[in-house]
């Protein structure tokens, strides 16, 4: 699944058959390169801010992630799993999108547009990179992703050598 598809998905609590809200934010464990949680909102206030925020839930508490909804066996248990979880350095997906992508050799490839992740394991599978305006986005597979850092994503030099992304001169 591509991270562009997740925001706004309905969140369904299977335990009582209710719609808890919609996915508002995705949280990543940067070291594990994995989605670990989702914040949920019940809507938007008339002034544009979030309204009635429901709890953040752990990815481990997700029953299924489909094209139309994220389902939870029990929202209370999924929230408890988030609270009790042990994670590395966390970052909201919105903070990762827009970061520069640089090779180990120092070539700037562009900026993160989105992340692909497995809807069963929630592991990051690829990074979509935009080399600039009116240029074709490229996809860097997980095995070329060295680190998701606090400021930049570092990819192997092989990402350029195999012709996947095109280098951008800045």
> CATH first level of the largest domain: which class?
Alpha Beta
By DSSP, the count of extended strands is: 13
- Which term fits the overall shape? elongated
Mean pLDDT over all positions? 87
Instruction: Predict the CATH topology of the largest domain.
Output: Photosynthetic Reaction Center, Chain H, domain 2
The total tally of domains equals 2
Low-confidence stretches: 44-48, 163-170
> How would a crystallographer describe the biggest sheet?
7 strands, mixed
Distance between the termini: 31 Å
What's the order of the H and E elements?
A: EEEEEEHEHEEEEEEH
Strand-residue fraction? 35-45%
Specify the structural class.
mainly beta
Provide the CATH architecture of the largest domain: Alpha-Beta Complex
Q: If helices are DSSP runs of H or I spanning 4 or more residues, what is the number of helices?
A: 3
List keywords for this structure.
170 residues; mainly beta; Photosynthetic Reaction Center, Chain H, domain 2; SH3 type barrels; 2 domains; 6-stranded mixed β-sheet; 3 helices; 11% helix; 43% strand
Could you explain the architecture of this structure?
The structure is a single chain. This protein is mainly β and 170 residues long. It has 2 domains: 3-92, Photosynthetic Reaction Center, Chain H, domain 2, CATH 3.90.50.10; 94-161, SH3 type barrels. It is built from 3 helices and 13 strands. The strands form 2 sheets. Strands 1, 2, 3, 4, 5, 6 and 7 form a 7-stranded mixed sheet that branches. The protein has a 6-stranded mixed sheet with strand order 11-10-9-8-13-12. The relative contact order is 0.18.
């Amino acid at each position: 699944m591509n991270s562009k598809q997740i925001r706004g998905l309905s969140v369904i609590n299977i335990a009582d058959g209710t719609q808890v809200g919609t996915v508002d934010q995705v949280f990543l464990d940067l070291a594990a390169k994995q989605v670990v949680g989702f914040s949920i909102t019940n809507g938007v206030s008339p002034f544009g801010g979030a309204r009635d925020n429901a709890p953040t839930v752990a990815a481990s508490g997700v029953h299924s992630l489909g094209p139309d909804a994220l389902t939870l066996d029990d929202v209370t248990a999924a929230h408890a799993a988030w609270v009790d979880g042990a994670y590395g350095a966390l970052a909201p997906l919105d903070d990762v999108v827009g970061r520069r992508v640089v090779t180990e050799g120092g070539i700037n490839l562009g900026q993160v547009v989105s992340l692909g992740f497995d809807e069963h394991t929630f592991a990051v599978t690829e990074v979509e990179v935009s080399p600039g305006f009116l240029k074709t986005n490229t996809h860097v597979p997980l095995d070329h992703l060295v680190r998701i850092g606090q400021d930049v994503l570092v990819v192997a030099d092989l990402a350029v050598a195999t012709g996947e992304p095109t280098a951008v001169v800045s």
